[in-house]
Predict the 3D structure of the following.
Amino acid sequence: MAGERAVGLVRELHRAAGGGLPPFRAEGLRQVLEEMRALYERNQADVSEAKSGRTDLIFLIRFRHCCLLRNQRCLLAYLYDRLLRIRALRWEYGSVLPNTIQFHMSAEEVEWFNRYKKSLATYMRSVGGEEGLDLTQDIKPPKSLYIEVRCLRDYGEFEIDDGTTVLLKKNSQHFLPRWKCEQLIRQGVLEHILS
């Protein structure tokens, strides 16, 4: 049936758990585009016949045209929703995405992500004076300025604004400024210990 492959792409994206990013289906996308090309070519042939007097083809031409428009809407919805999810991943994970997520992205999506993060970084540098303003910090309003964290994996030395360096080793606990830790918490290096 016409349009089933395109709807299948949207359904798969909708089923992805918790707004995650499922693998990019290049083959499915290619099949839908091929189906659209075939529908268009059949319509072009029937339009020439309809111009010569075969009015019985008009309904078939309209049906195929509706199928083309539906496939187009489904493909655009699929691609746009993936871009929205990738944009949300930039805010969740920061400028470096885990390899498991990058593996699910197409080359064009990786390029779009890199341009988006550069654009966001340029904007953040332009706002807030000399140092800029990091919009990715304090996604939720903090209750205290310092938090207790546990290191989940070896990270190495971590420098705080006052010049002190802290060695982040696996299972070590530290009392650090919240705004310095949030990015590492999102990357999975640190975990916030709730009292």
Notes: Helices lie at 4-15, 26-51, 58-93, 99-102, 107-126, 178-187.
